Every structure is written in C-alpha cells, then in structure tokens.
UniProtKB/TrEMBL annotation:
Domain named HTH araC/xylS-type: residues: 170-269
Taxonomy, superkingdom: Bacteria
PROSITE patterns: HTH_ARAC_FAMILY_2
Source organism of this protein record: Streptomyces kunmingensis
Protein name: Helix-turn-helix domain-containing protein
Amino acid sequence: MRAGQLPAAGARGPDWASVDIAVPRPARHLPGVSMAGFRQRAPVPMDIAMVAHPSVTLLFDLSDGDGLVYDARGRQERGSAVVGLLPGELRAGGRVGACLQIRLQPAVAAAVLGVSTELSGTVVPLADVWGPDAGRAEDRLRAVESWDARFAIAGELLRGRADSRPPVDPEVAHSWRRTLADRGRVRVDGLAGEVGWSRKRLSARFRSQLGITPKRAARLVRFDHAAHLLAAGHPAARVAVESGYVDQSHLHREVRDFAGLTPAGVASAPWLAIDDVAWPTPARPSSGHRFEGRP
C-alpha cells in the first residue's frame, strides 16, 4: 500500500487532512484498472461534486451506519454504486467512514460488468448490476481491515468476472487507447483508418461496446485533461490552448457540458484536489499508430 501527503482543506471542500488515502503497490496494478481506498478518521457529513472522468467507477461503501449517499439528476441512492460514463451532475456525500473506489477503463468495464452501454449516463446501485454477488463482495471486503487485503480481493473479483466474458473488439480497444494517449486530440476518421474500418463501422461498434461514440469519448478525455490543468492552477486561456480548444469560450462550453460548472468551478472542485494522491499517473500509453488486430 502507498499513501501520499494530503492537501489542506479547501474553502468549499471536505477536510482532506482528516482522510487517509491508500493506493495499491505498483506490483498489484491491473491493466485498465485504478483503485483507491478512503477512510475518514472521524466520519462527518460531506457533500462534494464528482467531476466527470473517462472511466466507469465502482464505489464500494464500507462504512458503518448510513454511509454513502449519492445524488444524480435529482435521484438519491445509498450504498455501493456503479457510475457509468457521463453521469451528469453527480454529488456524493453522507457520513462516509470507508470507501473503495475502482476506476475501470470502458473496455475493461465492458468485460467486468457486461452492461457498459446500459450504464452510460447513469448511476445505479451495484446490486442492480452484480445481483447477490454485490453483497457477497462487500462482505469479503468488510471482513478484512488492511487496504492491501482489500485491493487483493477486489483484483480477484475483477479478474474472475472478466475471464467469463468476451473482450471488446481489438479495433475498439485500440481506438480507446489512442484516444487516451493523445488526450482526446484525435479524429474519428484517423482512428478508423488505423484499424482498417469505415468511420460508420467504428462509431457503431465503439458505441455498442463502450456505450459512447468515439467523438464523444475524445471530448471527454480532452475535458479530463483540461480539468486537471485547471485544478493545477493554470489560467483558462492557457488551458484552452494546451488542450486543443478553439478558444477560451470553447473551453467554457465544454466544461459546462461535462461538469455543469464554469472553468473556475472545476479549478476549485474538491475531488480534483486529491487526484495526484489517490490516482498517481501511470506511464502514459504509447501514442503510436500501429495496430496489430487479432492474432
């Protein structure tokens, strides 16, 4: 387990200094999977906005008592949940004692969950996706106290579920990797040419397997890059240029679309304040154009 130094509390955010954050050792890394464990030493009510991210998220609520409460588009739920791509304005809070958050790249989520398309734009209880397995998974995670043990159990659960489902098309997986590597600054025509498909076929297969079009995926990845630059304190005008937006107004429109906030609001978002601790940046995937397809 690795932990980092937490930032001081922000004026509108929770007191992150009272939250312990754990991440798996590098040796436990699973391709397309990121995990972080959060434990609040003295649970107090929290209410924070979660900023859109290019992943499907599993939230395992390991708290005692009321625990995690989340609100998506006016619908409130409690407990462990699955956050699909582009969930809209999402707030999470409650008296959260402990929580395991797992980010799955869409191709991995398709294999682990089997319902990526149906999850796009939604937040649903984990039990609605995994059925009785959700409760059993929670019980196993609660039965151990160390985050190392919890990460090991979570990895075992994910591998077991992925092994029982067919992977997405290699052409789709390659197109997603390229989109991430180039921070969303890709063209669908170029991606289609790399994998030897038509634009129409790539868009249809991409959407049917990942629940999002390649164009929308590129916009989401580009927004995520811009959001982190804003959170790091860079001015909006500079962020617009570095992220490939036409101008600052274009950046403003995209931020509003994905987060329901202004660039200034994203810059001060409490959740982004801990990203470098909870989600340390792995080696960036290659942006090369080579595509090998199926063996």
